[in-house]
Amino acid sequence: MAPVLWKDDDEPELGDLIEIFRTGYKHWAVYVGSGYIIHVAPPCELSQPSGSSLMSVVCEKAVIRKDLLREVAGGDRYRVNNKLDSKYSPRPVNKIVREAEQQVGKEVPYSLATKNCEHFVTELRYGCGESQQVREAVGAVGAGVVLFGVLAGIGYFMSRNRQERNNQ
Fold it and tell me: Is 87 buried (19+), middle (13-18) or exposed (0-12) by CB count in 10 A?
């Protein structure tokens, strides 16, 4: 299956954020023209640029890379997603592209929770790194913990009531 760009199949505009749908997560990049993107790639993912690797969970360093969008996406779907434009004003396109280009080849700290590919591109576009993907995951985990606690509490009280009835 060929990658799908959900913007009327137009070429993205300079400075656009590109969301690539991997299995289990989304990879993010910034479009810099002529089919190229700049993105954060943990070394454990470099051997499979178009693959879905969750090994980035254990990586502490990453490399800023400039690659062809079609090669990074491989067979995965992707789209332009400037999702925070309504929350933050995008920085001037020339600054986004210049700062992204200046970072190519640099090794940077990487953390799935605080310094991932989404943080990198939102920092470039808006001047503040943010990852909704991480926030949503933390929210889901929190909801799961609360649900587990509620179910455990119900189980405890049901078990206690059963024991009290058996002791009568």
Answer: exposed
